[in-house]
Amino acid sequence: ILAALVYSPVYAHEGREVGEYTLEIGWREEPAYTGLMNGPEITVNRHGGEDDHDEGAATPEAEGDHANTGEDDHAEESTGVTGLEDTLQIEVTFGPASKTLSLRPVRNEPGHYTADLIPMRPGDYTFRVFGTIEGIEIGETFSASDGQFSTVEPIEDIQFP
After folding, report:
1. Rounded-to-integer distance, Cα 66 and Cα 62, Å
2. Is the pLDDT reported for residue 148 higher than 60?
């Protein structure tokens, strides 16, 4: 058990509910370091429940013993939103500089998208997600200065000798 706790990866991403969606964003590799390939990643899930537009979704009564199984419940109550690489973008800002990145889907992980970026300066970066999700206008800003995802650290912190 101790080994699992010590070696489990740390995911420092900010999650936010936007309408019927949950957006989770952060660096692909955290902690993030200057000069190393990285980039923002975002996961977009649609909430389940009565207002879910998926008429084919199973109800807890129809799922029998699986209705109260904890983690499986969560997976059945939300679904990854696909096709967003054509409708969402991420703007990355550091100080006065900004760059807009196109997203690409992560293979075999519906609702999970990433973009490539090599952060060149240590400090707090900001991600602005904008565009549409299933026709709904989105404009959300996430900042490392809020402590929800990793500040970019200087590469010297991990270099040796």
Report:
1. 9
2. yes
This prediction has a pTM of 0.75
SS3 72: helix
Banded pLDDT at 10 (limits 50, 70, 90): very low
CA distance 31 to 114: 16
CA 82 – CA 64 distance, rounded (Å): 28
> If residue 42 lies in a helix (H) or strand (E), which one and from where to where?
strand 40-47
Residues 34/154, Cβ–Cβ less than 8 Å: yes
pLDDT in tens, 16-38: 999 999 999 999 999 999 999 99
Scored b (16 or more CB within 10 A) or e, 146-155 reads: eebbbbbbee
Query: 127 near 141, Cβ under 8 Å?
Result: yes
Q: Could you tell me the two tokens for 108?
A: 């075999």
